[in-house]
């Protein structure tokens, strides 16, 4: 059990001051009645009342009273002894028992306080009966009722105080939890945005810079013997730089990709195949099957980026002659297939992504399809080309978050 007395809250301090004033007032009342009634022990009553008041006043000043229940018990014993002497001299001292109840219940443990209150009530009843030279049940009613009221009030207040403290701690914990949750959501948002930025940079700027690099190399090879071809490659590289600059600006502004502005996904894919065929030594063909259905911007952006990345892989790594891009509307799903006749690879032996050599394409495609509740399938055999199939539901599941527009 804690040996310290309860700390005083602002409400407790106000109640303590009221208790101080009540005890001093009752002592003064006993002195005034003794003097005005010209009692035989008036001088002793005044002296004992003064001593009792001084002993009582020492309690709030001594810091040990609030820090130790033992010190509080000793102080209460001294106050009680003075009160008993005063009770033996004056029947008016019986009223001091009432504030003593509150002191005992507040400073002592529950069991000790209850015992002290009972002893104080018994002493008050006995002292008053001795002064009246008789005893009746009515004499016991006042002190006993006062003790019961004091116990009910103090214990009720303590229960409310404990409940208030419990709620205060819960509110503090809730505040801390909300702050932690907000911090976690912020971190999750930052990570999600970093992932989105990484995908967008890979599928737009990185692929565009790679295309420009290939075109400039082609221009460098053609320059000595075919300057007209070199000029054409340089012009294509310049146009690729212009297109990627537009992508970068729209990307920064978080707008729809310019290839999708004012057009459909099918037209954007057909234009992508035409541009790829014109800039590189690969014939890219576009096919559309099924009845076109309205797609969300997130679906269109994801499928366009997947097609861009797949064709870029065909140009850079597959070294194929042809590539077929097929957009299929399958009722409640939309599918994108990219098939090339390049040198292929073993999907089970892909190298780990590396900042120097790349290798982020397939991982980015899978992240895009997974974000929209779709699937990505890659089939390839060394020497026999590659087939990539991305399938997305037209309505993303509720537990997936549509990818934000770039």
Task: Please tell me about this protein's structure.
- With about 400 residues, this protein is an alpha+beta fold.
- The chain is about 65% helix and about 10% strand.
- It is built from eleven helices and five strands; from the N terminus they run αααααααααβαββαββ.
- The chain has helices spanning about 10-35, 40-60, 65, 70-90, 95-105, 110-130, 135-220, 225-250, 265-280, 295-320, 360-370; strands at about 285-290, 320-330, 335-340, 375-380, 385-395.
- The chain has a five-stranded mixed beta sheet with strand order 1-2-3-5-4, with helices on one face.
- Helix 2 packs antiparallel against helix 4 (about 70-90).
- The chain starts with 9 loop residues before the first helix and ends in a 13-residue tail after the last strand.
Helix content: 55-70%
| Rg, Å, rounded | 45 Å
Output mean pLDDT: 79
Order of helices and strands: HHHHHHHHHEHEEHEE
Work out the strand percent.
Answer: 5-15%
Largest sheet: 5 strands, mixed
Low-pLDDT sequence parts: 1-6, 399-406
3D shape? rod-shaped
> Terminal Cα separation, in Å?
63 Å
Given helix and strand content, the structural type is alpha+beta
Give the spatial strand order of the biggest sheet.
1-2-3-5-4
Number of strands: 5
| Number of helices in the DSSP assignment | 11
């Amino acid at each position: 059990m804690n040996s310290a007395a309860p700390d005083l809250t602002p409400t407790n301090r106000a109640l303590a001051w009221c208790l101080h004033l009540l005890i001093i007032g009752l002592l003064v009342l006993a002195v005034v009645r003794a003097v005005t009634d010209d009692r035989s022990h008036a001088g002793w009553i005044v002296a004992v009342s003064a001593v009792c008041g001084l002993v009582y006043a020492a309690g709030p000043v001594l810091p040990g009273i609030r820090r130790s229940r033992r010190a509080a018990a000793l102080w209460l014993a001294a106050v009680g002894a003075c009160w008993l002497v005063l009770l033996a001299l004056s029947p008016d001292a019986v009223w001091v028992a009432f504030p003593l109840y509150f002191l005992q219940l507040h400073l002592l443990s529950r069991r000790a306080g209850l015992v002290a209150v009972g002893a104080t009530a018994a002493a008050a009843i006995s002292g008053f009966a001795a002064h009246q030279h008789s005893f009746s049940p009515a004499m016991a009613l006042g002190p006993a009722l006062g003790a019961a009221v004091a116990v009910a009030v103090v214990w009720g207040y303590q229960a409310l105080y404990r409940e208030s403290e419990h709620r205060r701690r819960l509110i503090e914990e809730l505040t801390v939890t909300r702050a932690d949750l907000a911090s976690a959501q912020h971190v999750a948002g930052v990570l999600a945005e970093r992932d989105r930025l990484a995908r967008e940079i890979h599928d737009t700027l990185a692929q565009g810079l790679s295309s420009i690099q290939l075109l400039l190399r082609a221009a460098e090879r053609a320059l000595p013997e075919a300057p007209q071809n070199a000029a054409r490659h340089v012009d294509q590289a310049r146009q690729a730089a212009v297109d990627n600059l537009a992508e970068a600006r729209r990307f920064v502004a978080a707008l729809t990709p310019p290839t999708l502005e004012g057009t459909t996904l099918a037209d954007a894919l057909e234009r992508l195949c035409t541009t790829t065929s014109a800039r590189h030594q690969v014939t890219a063909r576009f096919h559309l099957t099924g009845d076109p259905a309205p797609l969300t911007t997130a679906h269109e952006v994801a499928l366009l980026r997947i097609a861009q990345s797949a064709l870029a892989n065909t140009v850079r790594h597959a070294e194929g002659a042809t590539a077929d891009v097929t957009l299929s509307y399958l009722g409640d799903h939309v599918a994108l297939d990219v098939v090339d006749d390049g040198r292929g690879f073993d999907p089970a032996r892909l190298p780990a992504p590396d900042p120097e050599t790349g290798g982020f394409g397939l991982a980015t495609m899978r992240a895009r399809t997974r974000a929209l509740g779709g699937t990505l399938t890659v089939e390839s055999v060394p020497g026999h080309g590659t087939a990539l199939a991305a399938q997305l539901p037209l309505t993303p599941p509720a537990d997936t978050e549509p990818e934000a527009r770039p």
